[in-house]
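Lab channel / #folding
Pinned by the channel admin:
"Please post every new chain as: sequence first, then the structure tokens as a reply. Keep commentary short and put observations after the output so the thread stays searchable."

First post following the new format, from NK:
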Amino acid sequence: MVVFSASFGLLFGLGLFFLVRPGALSKRIVQLRSRLEHGMVWLIRRAQTQHRADLAIVGYQASEMVSRKLTMMLVASVSALGLIVVLSALAVNVSMTVALVILSSVAAVGFFLPDSQIRSKAKTRRQDFLHAFSSYLDLVNVLLAGGAGTETALIAAAEAGDGWSFAEIRSALTRARSSRRSPWAELANLGTTYNIAEISEVAGSVQLAGEHGARIRLSLSARADSLRNRHMGEIEAEAQSATERMGIPMVLLFIAFIALIGYPAVNLVLESF
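Reply from TO:
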């Protein structure tokens, strides 16, 4: 009964937290919430480079990630409290220790779940970007072979493509023109921001090739082939992994079928003893 009362009180308090507008809350609670959000923003900004790059490539700000993580944690906590309340109402003996373990575990899962979602989405976006960048290098190489200048070929190839990847390349080239920097330097910076080492490597190698058109074409052709082969290798590896995963349900189904058939025989043998 004590657990039921405590759980109901916590659930009611969280419900009021969601329903009451921040303007109606006390000044101290608002300040505490603001400090908590600022602290979370600081922690996320101090996170490792990979996480910051994941946020950048999916288009999330640190404050948006904080709100998402806090929301998921609160929703998970309310769900866990609801489960504890239901179990207590059904006369199931749930000790305070077990209730706290369940609540903290579910809250932790809710807090870290957005990180997993961001990592998965960022991985997909990096693969898409690399595929688009490989096509972009092929277009640049074709334009250079046709006699276009380096800067003209870079801009024309970027204008020929669609999608967010080509939009990012166009933005990088625009920043390079406005700041009078080398376009390859800006593309290398784009690779660093999104933690795509292949883009930075391509930009660095082309910069070393200088302004000579023939050397740039050779460097671009080699890098484009390397990216294409790597992309095809990743596709083949994913297909192989998917094929192996498809075999697991078949094996489990076969084991269940054998168990279903063999159970009567085993039962008869055991009863005979």
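NK: The radius of gyration is 28 Å.
TO: also worth noting, Residues 1-12, 18-22 have pLDDT under 50 and may be disordered.
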